[in-house]
């Protein structure tokens, strides 16, 4: 059950970060956000999206585990 919850949470965070990436791209296109700020924003959301998508797809991969393995909840 804990793997399912962390996998579902990872899917939610990945979807949110991709949505934020699109919104940040729109802000940069309409010049509401500076170039350097936009680059940092897009890089951060893109990396978070990649990590949490990988965590969603491979929930049993321990080095990216959100919870400590072998510890009772």
Could you outline the blueprint of secondary structure elements for this entry?
Elements: H1 2-29, H2 35-57
Number of helices: 2
Uncertain spans = none
Question: Could you report the average pLDDT, rounded to the nearest whole number?
Answer: 82
Q: Could you give the order of the helices and strands?
A: HH
Could you give the count of β-strands? Answer: 0
* Global geometry: elongated
- How large, in whole angstroms, is the Cα Rg? 15 Å
What is the CA-CA span between the terminal residues? 11 Å
Q: Beta-strand percentage?
A: under 5%
Structural class: mainly alpha
Tell me about the biggest sheet? none
Please tell me the total number of domains: 1
Determine the fraction of residues in helical runs and give it as a percent range: 55-70%
Summarize this structure as a short list of keywords or feature phrases.
single chain; 73 residues; mainly alpha; 2 helices; elongated
Report what the structure shows.
This protein is mainly α and 73 residues long. The protein has one domain. Helix content is 70%, strand content 0%. It is built from two helices and no strands. α1 runs antiparallel to α2. The radius of gyration is 15 Å and the shape is elongated. The N and C termini lie close together (11 Å).
């Amino acid at each position: 059950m804990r793997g399912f919850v962390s996998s579902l949470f990872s899917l939610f965070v990945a979807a949110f970060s991709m949505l934020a990436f699109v919104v940040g791209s729109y802000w940069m296109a309409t010049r509401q956000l500076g170039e350097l700020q936009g680059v940092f924003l897009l890089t951060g959301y893109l990396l978070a999206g990649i990590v949490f998508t990988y965590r969603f797809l491979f929930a049993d991969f321990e080095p990216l585990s959100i919870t400590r393995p072998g510890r009772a909840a």
